[in-house]
Amino acid sequence: MTASPETETNTAIVKLEDVHLSFGQTQVLKGIDLTIYKGDAFSIIGPSGSGKSTILRCINALVTPQSGKITVAGTRVDQLTKESERIQLRKRVGIVFQQYNLFPHLTVLDNIVLAPTKILGADKTATVKLARELLEKVRLSEKADAYPGQLSGGQQQRVAIARALAMKPELVLFDEVTSALDPETVGEVLWVIRDLIRDGMTSILVTHEMRFAEEISDTVVFTENGRIVDHGSPQQIFHTADNPRIRQFVGGLSGGGRGAVRDGEGI
Amino acid sequence: MSMTATQASKTTSKSSRVLRSIGFVAMPLLVIGWSLIDLSLGRELVEWIPYLASGFSMNILITICAVTLGTTAGVLLGLMQLAPYWFVRLPAQVYVQIFRNAPALVLIFATTYIFPFEVVLFGNYLPFPDWVKAVIGLAILSSAYIAEITRGAVLSIPTTQWEATKGLGFSRLQALRYVILPQCVRRSLPPWMNVASSMAMGTSLASLVGVHELMHAATDASTAVRRLDFTIIAYVVVMAAFFTLCYPIARLTRRLERRFNTG
Ligand SMILES: Nc1ncnc2c1ncn2[C@@H]1O[C@H](COP(=O)(O)OP(=O)(O)OP(=O)(O)O)[C@@H](O)[C@H]1O
Ligand SMILES: [Mg+2]
């Protein structure tokens, strides 16, 4: 955006500083610090309930922390007081959920076109053209006129990714986007995400696909109990971590065989 | 699954065929046959048909106005019941709770006697006809029903749909307009049809406050002719007429349902 080309690779696009958040009595985030640079692929791994989804929801202002600083693409998210300001932020930050959440009453194409035209006020013809390009990118051109109910889980999830991209977001958040899928369709979704990361899209992934995270991430953090226990390169987290909890977690999951990703599989 | 679905659609199509044949074949046949056997009765009937028809046009008018008004107000009230602000929510909840349980006849009497027979508008006296009051009475009742239907339909949409719209930067109202309400339409059609049909039936109550509609016309006719067989046949005509008023509503609903069925 405002960054000049030579500093672009070092520009922090997301920065969380000492973020604390609780739902009622439950402390969910207990001081989260993290920095994500433009163009990076950033993975968050950790056990269930450790606060991974909540971190993502803080970043696009779906929840507001009690304390701490959150900066996203130049916006102080923690200081947004009006819902309209949060909406402005969400238009710039894409999010893809575990359960795809496509709009069942609209065709695949209309699912993608709806938000850019109605919410951003983008030109209809140009948006339809963009939507078709995105469908090609996620390899679903022939499904443009199908309804979500007629697609497999993996196909629906790829449409959901295309729908998020149609808003031309500055970064995309992926919250366990393959966890609800049949094992045989996981590969096709990871393929799309890998392409996206290669194209330079800033991506934050919460994932249980350890081998995939290892392959595509620039940085990996391990969360437990509302804290970031460790962060570093995939090599550091997956192979040379000192923390026995991480070793156990990483070992336990990748031993399960769900993390396997073979190039081109299932496409 | 598919077995029960086809069975269900078979039973409904069968029962609707039976209904259709009673409404469109048996009742008209009875009327025509009887009129031909007893020609003096037939002559009386032919003479009174235009009068009955003018009454029936009033039923159609009241139904269309009451259902249109009631649906518009009902959808708004249903959404108000779900508003995040109590000062929007509360009045709608009170309105719905009061009127949902009011008998149609009570509402028609109330509107007839509460509203004046004429209103002053910019210094002009405009008549406030009784049929308009009946429309208001029925519209109030149907709006309370439709508010509940709308509220239930909105609540039945999974919260993940709201989450998806939020993630894409929709405001609450935009989410309602583009994503939630379109999905509610299909779910609300069958109960909406019930309301519309009962409003169509309810128009006959307007005769009790002197509106010249079909029941009123049939009563006039049978008082004037003073023949038992004519009275019976006149009310058979009334029944057939109400059937033809409700039948298109059912057809229309089924067509719309099929149109919204995709997805
Ligand atoms: N809206 C909420 N109200 C109350 N508690 C919540 C809410 N959302 C999350 N929590 C709690 O916060 C904790 C962290 O939740 P979060 O969804 O961030 O975990 P997670 O790391 O994403 O787990 P998972 O891998 O199961 O998705 C959990 O204990 C959860 O029960
Ligand atoms: Mg989660």
UniProtKB/TrEMBL annotation, chain A:
Organism: Rhizobium deserti
Location(s), subcellular: Cell membrane
Gene3D superfamilies: P-loop containing nucleotide triphosphate hydrolases (3.40.50.300)
Location (main, coarse): membrane
UniProt-listed SUPFAM superfamilies: P-loop containing nucleoside triphosphate hydrolases
Pfam families cross-referenced by the UniProt entry: ABC_tran
Signal sequence residues: none
Lipid bilayer topology: Peripheral membrane protein
GO terms for cellular component: plasma membrane
Any GO MF annotation of the entry: ABC-type amino acid transporter activity
Domain ABC transporter intervals: 14-250
UniProt protein name: Amino acid ABC transporter ATP-binding protein
Protein family per UniProt: Belongs to the ABC transporter superfamily.
Key words of the record: Amino-acid transport, ATP-binding, Cell membrane, Membrane, Nucleotide-binding, Transport
Stored PANTHER family: AMINO ACID IMPORT ATP-BINDING PROTEIN, GLUTAMATE_ASPARTATE IMPORT ATP-BINDING PROTEIN GLTL
